[in-house]
Write a structure and sequence with these properties.
This protein is of the alpha/beta class. Helices cover 40% and strands 10% of the residues. A six-stranded parallel β-sheet has the order 2-3-1-4-5-6, with helices on both faces. Helix 2 runs antiparallel to helix 3.
Length: 271
């Protein structure tokens, strides 16, 4: 990875796709939706752990080389001329590994108030009235309540990312992460991007926030959730009423721990 690599992580439906779409405007950067590298790293870790009987033949130096090789092999056609931003919600629990593999790498963590995360997912589900979503295991009988419970469980799409982010904020590698709020990214994208470039140490670039192009329709269709990664061509905040029932909204209101200065004991940068 001779031109470097950085990472995008954080909560779902919090701006990671928009951030990647904007970064793609820079011809020396590569970014996108969740890549296969995160799951490949997890699989590799399992195969070289002591749960595999052949692990006795593998030492830590080999483990590190194998993991590094995953990145080099996956991005072999891209990294000679691009700096990579790889997206995966699991990167926040892999900070010790990322720090060892890529000492200069930073992780941009996108965050958004939990009720609005759930509202956004629910809105996409209801828009696809003729499709069942893989996110909910193609279950035709779910309600907004069961979907919220599943999403926020410790292994759910939202709950897992939420807990992983809290772990990262209190890790010894916390100086490697920056939290980027959805509000800043959508209301002041120029300031948000400037913060990303400053944090990663990359040369600044002027982005066109009124002409954003991104297409992940094939991926979304395969998930049974068309529109999941749709990005509007003009960046801006959209005011709307929530479709969550009031009691469900109240259940998750106030869970935005990054808004509490007392919680941020390691001084993680929040934009």
């Amino acid at each position: 990875m001779q031109n470097g690599i950085h990472f995008i992580s954080g909560l779902p439906r919090s701006g990671s796709t928009l951030l990647a779409a904007l970064l793609l405007q820079n011809p020396v950067l590569h970014a996108g939706i969740t890549s296969a590298v995160g799951s490949l790293v997890g699989t590799m870790l399992r195969e070289v752990s002591q749960g595999n009987e052949v692990a006795v033949m593998i030492d830590d130096t080999q483990r590190q080389a194998l993991l590094r090789g995953l990145f080099d092999s996956y991005y072999h056609a891209i990294h000679p001329s691009h700096t990579v931003f790889d997206t995966n919600r699991a990167w926040t629990i892999r900070l010790p590994i990322l720090a060892a593999l890529f000492p200069q790498a930073k992780v941009i963590c996108c965050v958004r108030d939990l009720p609005w995360v759930l509202d956004s997912i629910e809105r996409v589900v209801r828009q696809n009235r003729w499709e069942l979503s893989k996110i909910f295991d193609f279950d035709p009988s779910g309600t907004v309540y069961s979907r919220a419970d599943g999403l926020t469980s410790r292994t759910g799409m939202v709950g897992y990312a939420y807990n992983a982010l809290k772990q990262a904020m209190h890790s010894t590698e916390a100086d490697r992460i920056m939290l980027l709020t959805y509000e800043t990214l959508t209301r002041d994208p120029t300031r948000a991007l400037q913060a990303v470039y400053e944090f990663t140490g990359l040369p600044p670039f002027i982005h066109d926030v009124e002409n954003v192009v991104f297409d992940a329709s094939a991926f979304d269709t395969r998930l049974g959730t068309p529109g999941l990664h749709t990005v509007r061509p003009v960046v801006g905040a959209v005011q709307r009423e929530t479709i969550l029932p009031p009691d469900l909204w109240r259940r998750y209101e106030g869970e935005s721990f990054w808004r509490d200065p007392a919680y941020n004991k390691r001084g993680v940068r929040i934009v």
